[in-house]
Design goal:
about 300 residues, alpha/beta, Rossmann fold, Alpha-Beta Plaits, 10 helices, 14 strands, ABC_transporter-like_CS, AAA+_ATPase, ATP-binding, P-loop_NTPase
Length: about 300
């Protein structure tokens, strides 16, 4: 797929000597939803700030739809909409004025029809005359998205888009993001809610201590790094795992009636068949079987922990 953002050799070192980003190479495909995951202080917001032209790189280049964010700042910035993590707006400004003013900041001519369409799309039309101070946190977040989209950008950055938003509204916003992608907008989001990335993202990047650890298709990442868990409930509890089953590294539940077998999702199913045969040979009767896959959160935690070793 063609790239709409291309980051090459990007490094950011502050005057204090702290290096926030180290030799970042990253390509984001046109029309995808890309999730950037990482612990606090990993460099997510710094990376977004540089791509959006808010902060300057120490080394390296960033192209937004072919425009260099330093040499062609105005052209590059016009391609990008940013919804920052912090909600900031004039408390006494109404919704219509706030969104219209943001459009004007990019030199776009007034377009009431487009602003109306945008507000309706974001379920803000009935709030168009309301002052920002009168809105709920979720509505303010929607206004921030409207402001970011007011100049019709091709790229939208969402920095922690559902922070402080209740679960129901979060799901509504997920649907809204999908609809934006269907309209051709490329979405890049950072999030602490890993289920958000698991629900929406096409590809996932993991950043830690200013370095990109990996970039993968979401499903490929889960297939490659995920594990499966087989829970075997026995007819009769046992006090310990039989020595003959040692090769399977089984975990025995406290109640003694459930054996847990964790295995690589890429392994052949033969290992499960062998395990079940061994259980029969040991005279252990099975009452029930249940299998489950690792979530993206488990994969992320194990990946970051592995890199710390």
């Amino acid at each position: 797929m063609p790239s709409i953002i291309r980051v090459s050799g990007l490094t950011k070192t502050y005057d204090s000597g702290f290096t926030a980003l180290q030799n970042i190479d990253l390509e984001i495909h046109r029309g995808e939803i890309f999730a950037l995951l990482g612990p606090n202080g990993a460099g997510k917001t710094t990376l977004i700030s540089i791509i959006c032209g808010i902060s300057s790189p120490s080394e390296g280049t960033v192209l937004a739809d072919g425009f260099d964010i330093v040499k062609d700042y105005r052209a590059a910035r016009s391609k990008i909409g940013l919804v920052p993590q912090e909600l900031c707006s004039d408390a006494f400004e109404n919704v219509w004025s706030a969104v219209s003013f943001s459009r004007g900041l990019f030199g776009k001519p007034a377009n009431p029809e487009f602003i109306e369409k945008l507000l309706r799309q974001l379920s803000l039309w009935d709030k168009k005359d309301a002052q920002m101070r009168e809105l709920s946190g979720g509505m303010k977040r929607r206004v921030m998205i409207a402001k970011a989209l007011s100049h019709e950008p091709d790229i939208l950055f969402l920095d922690e888009p559902t922070a402080g938003v209740d679960v129901e509204l979060r799901k509504d916003m997920w649907q809204m993001v999908r609809e934006l992608r269907e309209q051709g907008v490329t979405i890049i989001l950072t999030t602490h809610y890993i289920e958000e990335a698991e629900e929406m993202a096409d590809r996932i990047g993991v950043i830690r201590k200013g370095k990109i650890l990996l970039v993968e298709e979401k499903q490929a990442l889960m297939d490659k790094l995920g594990s499966k868990l087989l829970s075997i409930r026995l007819q009769q509890p046992v006090s310990e795992v039989p020595e003959a089953l040692a090769e399977f590294s089984l975990q025995l539940a406290e109640d003694g009636d459930t054996l847990c077998y964790r295995y690589d999702s890429r392994q052949e199913s033969d290992s499960i068949a062998r395990l079940l045969r061994k259980l029969t040979e040991q005279g252990l009767e099975i009452r029930d079987l249940h299998s489950s896959e690792s979530s993206l959160e488990q994969i992320f935690v194990s990946l970051v922990h592995e890199k710390e070793q």
